[in-house]
Hints:
By secondary structure, this protein is mainly α. The protein contains 15 helices and no strands.
Amino acid sequence: xxxxxSASPRITKIRQALARPSRQLALPQRQAPNxxxxxxxxxxxxxxxxxxxxTVALANFSTKVGGDVLTARMVLSIGMAxxxxxxxxxxPAPPLALWPSLIFxxxxxxVYQTGLVRALHRGDLSRIFPIMRGSAxxxxxxxxxxxxxxxxxxxxxxGLSVASLAVISFAWPEAATRSAAQIxxxxxxxxxxxxxxLGIGAYxxxxxxxxxxxxxxxxxxxxxxxxxWIGITLVTLYIRRGRVWHHVRPQLxxxxxxxxxxxxxxxxxxxxxxxxxxxxxxxxxxxxxxxAALMGALWLKEGFGKRRIIAxxxxxxGLGLMxxxx
Length: 326
């Protein structure tokens, strides 16, 4: 009893102390999570498409600037294979059933490369590049319907047509008078530019179809670039036989730079194909004609002109219509 009497005042003081609000033991307030805004799939596809446009223009500029387009393209293709080689052990291998589709895609790329080499060998970058790139979106839109089940709205077709006509206008000659030799060279260059446009349209549809069947997008990207160099290299070794290193040495620096740009360009485009319609991605890549024309004017001393500046503005309007339609 004496213990309870002596302890009760002490217990009472402890209870009173615990009942008072404590300033030091206040719980921290919950703060809102600090997260960075993420890009939506549509905006990410636009960003990747425009990035792909700049880098594909740089890759083609590096092919043209060295003088020997065929050898430069071979070095560029080998460089692209070396860029993806370290990633080969880390991506899922293509299923055996998809190897025929992969080989077919590589064959389509070889047709594109053949047309590209012959076109750039015969014409200016600022004239040939817009034709072969500007014709591709319409071809892709036509082929993407039956192959990929993707269709554009009437507004999308209007924007696609405006954009394509704008980039094709880049190639129209500035001078009204030309010699017979120039006219003949232009016809040959335009013919091969058309073949290249068909190749671009074909590989865009084929690649967009095959990449969706692969275990991962990285599988198709890595294996495509790892094998794409074989065809163009065999052709170059045959045509340049006996003097291969003599032709390769001046092309090494620009072509290897182009190989890095080309790898980044097409990898970005292939990933964008998984986010939106193939026709829209291809049309966004067609802004590369603006960058290619600027590179040709600044470093290759090719003409640019006010008319091509206006065409660039029309191109932006056409691409804007396509984006509104999507």
